[in-house]
Structure formats: structure tokens, C-alpha cells
Amino acid sequence: MRKEIINMVMAAIKTRIRRRNLTVRRLLSALVVVLCSCSDYLDLVPDNVATIDYAFRNATEAEKYWATCYSYLPNIGHPGYDPAILGSDELWIHDVNTWYTGLANFWPWYLQQGQQNVTEPLLNFWDSGRDGSNLFIGLRDCNIFLENIGKVGKDLSEADRNTWIAEVKALKAFYHFWLLRMYGPIPLVRENLPISSAIDDVRVYREPFDDCVNYIAELIDEAVPDLMPEVIMPTTQLGRITQPAALAIKADLLLMAASPLFNGNPVYKDIADSRGIKLFPQTREVSKWQRAMTACKNAIDTALLANVKLYEFVDARYPVHDSTRLVMSLRNAFGQRWNTEVIWGISKNSAANLQAYSLPWFSATDQALAATQPVISPTMKVAEMFYSRNGVPIDEDPSYPYESRYTVTAASPDQMYYVASGFETANLNQFREARFYATLGFDGGIWFGNGRTKEVGEGDASTQAWTVNAKSGQMSGKVMSIRFSATGYFAKKYSHFESVTNTSAFVPYRMAFPYYRLADLYLMYAEARNEYSGPDSEVYKYIDLVRERAGLAGVLDSWRQYSRYPDKPASQDGLREIIRRERNIELALEGKRFWDIRRWTTADTELNQPVKGWNVDGKTAPEYYQPVTLYQLEFTTKEYLWPLKQNSIRRNPSLVQNPFWEN
């Protein structure tokens, strides 16, 4: 039956080719729709054989297929499609059933609330569904490209051919990595199965986790020599995988493999398939941290050779105070398109959604147009995570008023570039490190840009930086039952300072969501080195590079001078806690914490806590600055991994379900 359908479709395609000039991708899409409905197993068989010769008849057509391989990249950074944005405990939104914002179906938010299931899994990247796409189809198309690119004639230069092959291998590695991180052991799509494959051959098995890791790492190693060392022609090369980007993927992969979730986790010890093969590592291996450490350092060194460096805000158009410049360096390290720190940016995501759904309303024009909808709200947990201005946790700093952090006081003039002088706001919003003010907007906070680019105290009231007024009924506060921050905090990091709402529309600065940036790699390396061999000068060096850019002293000096626990950085356990917090702070709201707390196996603690914010119905400072619980999160052990769809296991008995999802 399957062969009959293939023959019918092939004949139809030949007829259509003769009648009209259809693109290769439309032909492939049509064929996939027809045949996917007939497939009972993973889609690894190359059904579209009839179009292969056409797709690789010349360099122009082959380039289309090469671009198609990139098209399967998940919509990373989009709040409606990326589980790591709204699926963590960093952000909250109010009831999505009462309004629509265009953020797809909010499956990541439902994921946060424990609504994952085996019947229709949320964000299903295994066989597609609930705003997840089938990455096995992407892997199949990558294989088709690799198997056929050699057919293209002399109009494709050997250099371009080799670079395209390397990029598709790196994409293939990334798609495997994305699935591995979500599901644990996966089938490896080393090559496509022939059409003549028997049913038993296409009933593929999940391969042991370490085998998956090794295969992905091998793909990266094969790809790197022929990848571009750095982007030379921005108009055509930005967003493509370079040597530093590929090595960052490998570093991320090996860091995950060394982490507690997959490195000898006793919870998964007895999981085996029908062959009796154990799918997860049975014992903890410290050597995996060494392997991760080496990969991280290799990625760093390669990035530095490609002129990647920590970003600093320098723009002669905007003469600002050093305090504002520091905030802008930290804010724009994420938001400035293709800045010096970005190792790999996702060019398909301009971050317009993130900006439109996180910007507060600053003016009557904003409210009237409702072109922005400030509904993506950082939680109070995020606000409390940042250090004091002395660079240590607020509950460790004796000089910080931790016990009275919710108490309202008037902001002192020495904070005028962060908090409006004399503004009555909670102590929690005061005396904090610069990354707090770069990441979060809040009642009384200074917001540079977005229509106002004069420094505090300069120019007139219509041009100098905004002061956020977020109490109920105020411009940035709750003025209706929809479109407001549920927590009282705003994701300033998401909004580029040159985005603006004019009299007719919201005009966002087009970003490229930074999936890897140098600070991330520095902290990856510090973590791996500390886990392998404990604290040493090299570990401190790479943490301190990130802290220095944030305007903070080094770890040893900060803890010795300002912490109740001055010896904390000297122990492996203490430094582990510091490194993890540094990652949570430096990479806040960037989609890293979602995966980090899973690989660290701390999600069952972090995601069983209440979501808190300010009382946004309050009209006065005493009313507003009352912490309220918005939701009680619940997380169970089974949620560390995605479930396989129940129907997929029914169709393919060779697959084994992930732990605790059987019922």
C-alpha cells in the first residue's frame, strides 16, 4: 500500500513539474503531508525520492534545500513556542483565557502549571503537536541534503559545498541535542532508511544516552574544520552556524551530560528497552566534567579568535552617566543585534513579540493604541535573586536591609540613575547591583530609551529617561482587567532602548535572539572546572570577567568584604552555589534557567514554590508594596523529561516511555 501511494504521488509530481514551475519546497511539503498520514513510526524514510534530482540539479536549487535545513530550527526565544521562556519560574502572565495577545496557545505557560501529559504532549518536538514541530523530519531532510549535495555540478564551488555540508552536520547535531535535552535517550538518525525498509526496520529504538552524546559530539567535530571561523559578510551570513557557535553547542551538550540529571542519576538507573539495554548512565563519572571543561575552553578560545568579546555600550549619540552606561552595557549584551558578545543569534526571531508583550505603557498614546501589551511579568523570585550593590546575595549582606526588604522608603539621591530620587518604593528595589536595573523595570525605576534618550536631570521632562509609575490607575499600572503586569515588574532586558511607540504603531528594534553569548560560555567553563577539580584561580578568573563587566568586584574580594560567609567561594560546594546564582543573574530571562534547574536536578525544589508579586491593585505605596501569592507551582520528578506521546509508543513497541509517565 505504501509503495502504491508513493508511485501515485511521484506520477502526480512529474505532471505538476511539467505544467508549472513549482518550488522544491512546496513539492516536498505536499509529499510530506500525504505520506506522514501513512507512516506508523518515526519519519525516517525518505519519501520524497521523486524530487531529489530536481532539488539538487544546480547550485541555486541546492541552496534552497540547504536553507530548508535551517528552517527546522525551533522558534527559540518566542514566548509562545520556546518552553524555556514562559515555562520557567522567572515569568508570569495573568489569566490567558480572558484575552488574546498572539502568543500562540501559551503552551509554555501551561507547561509551567504542570499540564504536561501523554495524550497530547505540550510542545511536542518528537512527532509534532501543541506548537512543537517534528524534528525527526528536520533530521531526515538534513540527511537528504548530505546524501545528495555531491550531485550538484561545477556551478557550486567546492568551498561553498564543504561549508554547507558542515553547517548541515552542525544543524543535525543541534536537532539531536534539542531532542536529547527534552526526552533523554532518543533514536539516532545517522542516515535515512531506504523506502524498501521492512516494518521491523523502521521500528527504531531509543539509543543509550551516552551513545547519543558521543554521536552529537562527533558530528560537531566533523563539521568544525569546514565551518566559517567568523561572519565576514553580515548581509548573507548572520545567523549561520560558525565554528564558535558549533563549539558552543558541543560545550552545552557535554555540560548537560556531566550534570546530575544524566550523570549517574539513580532515578533512571533501571530504565531499559525491550532488548534489555539500559538507556541511562549507571554511575556518576567525574571525567565527564573534565570533558565538558575542555569543550567549554575550546569554545571560548575559538570565540576569542573570532573577535568575540564582552559587550560594552559605547554610542556617541547618547552621552550618558557611567551608571546608565553600565546598565546599557548589561541590557544591550542581550538586546543589541549582533553585538560583539553574540556567538550565535537566532535570526528568525526578531524578538518583536518579547518586546511588545513586556514593555510597560509610558504614555497615553501607548494606552490608546494598545500596540504593546505589558503582560509578560518577571516574578518576585527573580527580583530577589540579584545581588546587593556589594555583589553578594541580599540575605548574606549585613549592610543590606534584608528583613525590611518589603518596607517602603524614599530613594536616596545617590541612586538617581536607577530609582527616581525621593520616590517611595520598596527596599527590594533599592541598593541593588546594576544587572537588577538592566533586567527589571519597576515602580519608581528609571527607564532609559523607548522614546526618551536624555539622561536623568538633562533636557526637559519630555525627553529625559522615563520614571515608571506602576500603581493601580497610573500610566504603567493596572488600568483595566487585561494588559498589565501581574507582578509589578517589567522585563526591561527584552526591550531594546531604540524601540518606540509612535502615534500609529509600535516600532520595535529588530533583534536576533542571542542563543549563545560569551558570558554564558565563561560561566559554563567556570562551572565545569569547579565540578571537576574544585576552586582555583582559573575558575575565579572567568566568573570575575562576567562580574567585572557588571561593575562588581571579584568573587573572593566581594565575599571577604561583604558576606556573612566570607569563606564560601573557597569550597567546591560554596562556589557551586555562587556559579549557579551567577548564571541565574547574568542570563536571567534568556531561557537558560529552565534547562539549568533541570540538569542540576533542583527543579523539584525551585518549581514547587509560590509565584509572588506586588499587589498591583494597590493605589498607594502602603497598599501596593504588599507581596501577594499569584500561584502555587507544582513540579514532579517525571517532569524532568518530556513524555513520549502515548499513541507513538502504541505504534512503535520498540520505544519505551520515560520514567513515571506510563500511567
Task: Provide the fold topology.
Blueprint: H1 2-19, H2 24-36, H3 49-55, H4 59-71, H5 83-86, E1 91-92, H6 107-112, H7 135-148, H8 158-183, H9 199-202, H10 209-223, H11 234-237, H12 243-258, H13 287-305, H14 322-335, E2 342-346, H15 352-356, H16 364-369, E3 377-378, H17 380-385, E4 408-410, E5 424-426, H18 434-439, E6 440-441, E7 446-447, E8 466-467, E9 490-491, E10 500-501, E11 506-507, E12 513-517, H19 518-533, H20 537-549, H21 555-562, H22 572-586, H23 593-599, H24 603-606, E13 610-614, H25 621-624, E14 627-632, H26 646-651
Antiparallel strand pairs: 1-3, 2-12, 4-5, 6-9, 7-8, 10-11, 13-14
Helix pairs in contact: 1-2, 4-7, 7-8, 8-10, 8-12, 10-12, 12-13, 13-19, 19-20, 19-22
Helical content (DSSP H or I, runs of 4+): 40-55%
Derived structural class: mainly alpha
Distance between the termini: 34 Å
pLDDT averaged residue by residue: 91
Alpha plus pi helix count: 26
The CATH architecture of the largest domain comes to Alpha Horseshoe
In one word, what is the shape?
Answer: globular
Describe this protein's structure.
This protein is mainly alpha-helical and 663 residues long. It folds into three domains: 42-305, Serine Threonine Protein Phosphatase 5, Tetratricopeptide repeat (Alpha Horseshoe); 352-509, no CATH class; 517-640, Alpha Horseshoe (Serine Threonine Protein Phosphatase 5, Tetratricopeptide repeat), CATH 1.25.40. 41% of the residues lie in helices and 6% in strands. The chain is built from 26 helices and 14 strands. It has helices spanning 2-19, 24-36, 49-55, 59-71, 83-86, 107-112, 135-148, 158-183, 199-202, 209-223, 234-237, 243-258, 287-305, 322-335, 352-356, 364-369, 380-385, 434-439, 518-533, 537-549, 555-562, 572-586, 593-599, 603-606, 621-624, 646-651; strands at 91-92, 342-346, 377-378, 408-410, 424-426, 440-441, 446-447, 466-467, 490-491, 500-501, 506-507, 513-517, 610-614, 627-632. The strands form seven sheets. Strands 1-3 form a two-stranded antiparallel ribbon. Strand 10 and strand 11 (506-507) form a beta hairpin. Helix 8 runs parallel beside helix 12 and helix 19 packs antiparallel against helix 20 (537-549). The longest helix has 26 residues, at 158-183. The radius of gyration is 26 Å and the shape is globular. Mean pLDDT is 91; it is low at 1-40.
